[in-house]
Amino acid sequence: MAYPTVPCPLHIFEPCYRLMIRRCMETVTKQFGMCIGDPVKGFADYGCILEIRNVEFFADGRSVVDSIGKRRFKVIQHSQRDGYNTADIEYIEDQKVIGRDYAELLVLHDSVYDHAYMWFNSLKQLLKTRILSHFGPMPVKDPDPKANPNGPAWCWWVLAVLPLESRAQLPFLAMTSLKDRLNGIRRVLTFMSRTRSR
Question: What range does the record give for the signal peptide (predicted)?
Answer without folding.
Answer: none
